[in-house]
């Protein structure tokens, strides 16, 4: 201070006095007097956790910060915001919107944390110019703040919307199967959420493996139509459930995918929840080729010969031939087979009419006297095989036919 002199004296009543001799300026400091308790209420820096451009052109910021030094008997904290910004009308849980410039956050059920109380803010910015926002926690009534660090600032930069698209987080739940499949028919469902209130149409692309057909689609609060692998839903009224009906092949696993098509005028801020897929499994088909009546004794004959037969069903329409084999396990033999079958070394190839409902196979076989023999009938069509067997007991007269009469005629009863 050059040649100036500064004199500091302490008066008898405890006050400090600073006296500058030339200018006769006196500063007086008064010690704290008994009154409001002192606290050191402070705020940390603010961090932008997320930022979206709403349909109305307003930028919405989700800010995160914290407050330290909150007394336990304070029931709520008040926060004020300044700058060309405002608090959003919908705040996070625990905080309530009071007005564009003010929100209050209530004390948690287990009290304020002794260290740091985390707090989030939803802030709106209208316009296309960046703004500096200041959020200040208000000193509770009945307390004196000993330091001036109870506010924080953050620079908010609006999104550049060069394409005129509104950013939005469309969401779709995972595809799930509804109920059990009926043979090859499956029903799938998903929930579509975060649908803008003014949006009236949404489309979906379906990925279908070979052999899978999308039959129909239904919306709970929407009208949906199917065209190939595209689903178009109109007359939307907000969120809705989407149901798909499909037909799949009768065997194997089939993976079906569904993807939401972001509508024109929007860009999706989170495309990870815009699609889903599911693998459908169909049971192995029931054996179609089978015997409706198993191989059985039909009539026995003289000379140790017996007429046996079975009824075959399940040959697909359009088939013309099946492979038939009738064999004896040991000493027996096959004398003759069905009239419409050709015998070659004990095996038979049979012509089948495409429109048949059942096909009767009848054979004459021979079993040596006082013997027991097993005959096996096998029918093959493509990859399917049907088998039936019969044991003929010729050890005593009349023992082979479940009460059938034993005939002594010399000719076959064909």
Give an overview in words.
The protein has 414 residues and is an all-beta fold. The protein is 0% helix and 53% strand. The protein contains no helices and 36 strands. Strands 5, 6, 7, 9 and 12 form a 5-stranded antiparallel sheet that branches. It is elongated. The protein starts with 5 loop residues before the first strand and ends in a 21-residue tail after the last strand. The N terminus and C terminus are likely disordered.
Estimated structural class: mainly beta
Please summarize the sheet with the most strands: 5 strands, antiparallel
| Count of individual helical segments | 0
Spans where pLDDT lies below 50 across 5 or more residues: 1-5, 10-21, 400-414
Number of strands: 36
Q: What gross morphology would you assign?
A: elongated
Radius of gyration: 45 Å
The proportion of residues in beta strands is over 45%
Mean pLDDT: 79
Approximate helicity band: under 10%
Q: For the terminal residues, how far apart are their CA atoms?
A: 141 Å
